[in-house]
Predict the 3D structure of the following.
Amino acid sequence: MGGDFGPSVTIPAVKKALKAYPNVAFQLFGDEATINSYLKLHRFNKHDRIRVFASSDDVTMDDNPIIALKNKKNSSMRLALEAVRDGQAHACVSAGNTGALMAISRFVLKMLPGIDRPAIISAIPTLINEHVFLLDLGANVSCDERRLTQFAIMGNELVKCLDDNPSPKVALLNVGEEENKGSEKLQRAAEMINSLESIDYAGFVEGNQIFSGEYQVIVTDGFTGNNVLKASEGLTRYLSHKIKAAFERNWWTRFTGLLAKPVIRTFKHEVNPEKYNGACLVGLRGIVIKSHGAANVFATFCAIEEAIVQSKQKLPHKIREKLEQAAATLDH
Amino acid sequence: MGGDFGPSVTIPAVKKALKAYPNVAFQLFGDEATINSYLKLHRFNKHDRIRVFASSDDVTMDDNPIIALKNKKNSSMRLALEAVRDGQAHACVSAGNTGALMAISRFVLKMLPGIDRPAIISAIPTLINEHVFLLDLGANVSCDERRLTQFAIMGNELVKCLDDNPSPKVALLNVGEEENKGSEKLQRAAEMINSLESIDYAGFVEGNQIFSGEYQVIVTDGFTGNNVLKASEGLTRYLSHKIKAAFERNWWTRFTGLLAKPVIRTFKHEVNPEKYNGACLVGLRGIVIKSHGAANVFATFCAIEEAIVQSKQKLPHKIREKLEQAAATLDH
């Protein structure tokens, strides 16, 4: 049971999920005594939909993924993934070390046929529609045209399942909208994605269009995706700081700030990044949801919800079907 | 005289600059009749610090850079750059087609020794300090370690000159701060930059640290830089829209919105992207400032100011010296 706060956040989030989803059961992996003490604290230590499993190793945030994979065979992360592999659980939610989660997932669950490595995909809020799914967010630093095409297929199926949208618009991130812009690799990826019948390919888009809401899936390499996502976090923090400072300028602005508080609260609720917690590791033969290390109770609950929805939709199964159909294009 | 608005924006901006800088003279290139009519409109058609030069070709925003370079030898862009080459002007400011400006600048002005292509660099507001310089913003889609090192040298000298900072902190954008993160190319670039005595290399940074203000120069490839910059524009637009919508919810929120107007104005002024208009094409044997196509009068004035400051500092000359000192590392 990882993340920055461990069971102190996970247990209340699980409690919330048990109430909201009467058919869902939990297996909790980690230090047994600590988990039990938190269960007791929250007064549901004898819940019939909770089972606690003791782990002895501990994957830390600084652990090298390969070392974690080789030496920490009894970590909560590893045991939870093995439960998914063995059909004991439908999905694994973890707030632990992303690199280790990737490496161990890949080893324990294996990849879908034709996929080399998992991609990280997550929803991001937009102007018109509710959200867009952006991938990859950092699992694959450099990507050739085949991998970008795999991302398009996986993103497309994910949106179809989760948003009940039969024909999502899928776009490729580039430095210009014109067909001749960007690297040759990107142009080849555009051709490959465009040739797939199952995808409504919308062409190249630029960075400012990520938040426009015109597209439902935007595909890019993990280096760019990761930096765009993290820069957005940094910019949001910068702008929040600036607006706060503007309201704290003098007694009058502080007064208007008090009056405007409900508005600021509405605004914060609408753009709350916690709603979007729960990135998915796609391409695996099982469902793995990565919760933010610093997630609070609400954000952790959102990550659990994501796992429940994906389990109901049997997402890996559906992605697998589409990959098989696209095999000819991908092998080309 | 390009950009979305042509002389209707440029002429008032020039008027403002003539007042603010009594020692600066302007050469205006474009359609003579149109320029003169705007000069007349703004009542300074007989100014002794303005000369108008007629151009006959027109580089449009959609023009292919190579076509513009080969076929439009009498465009305002080309003539202005030739004036810089021939020592008739200290700097060229353009709001025209970026690709064409890059290609024509490179052909007319030539690159500094050891530099293959210009990089686009611009200041971005940050939390602690006033700004950070990010490069490349889209001139070089893919960059090897040599090119990233050239960016570090150019960014470092630019900040030293413009911000009067003798030892700027220079960082490399990556998907993690640890030395083993990212591609091998990035790790080699880190080594090369770290070996240069003239640079205070601060290591790898992640996207969220762009806006933190702890660094003065952040180096990345043009694909990532362009997407981070444009995504930031898109996110700012999204957040502005959401805050406006929150204030327009009902009569009470509209009322508090009226009271909070001065605060919102302060906030908007502080984060005004127009202040940061005027990206520089570094690596050339002359000063070329790219103004945003949609720049207004104030933003265009800021781009002109940027050109004036860089001219006073003889920026290309200083960058050239540092490149010569670093030649051994770059040739390695």
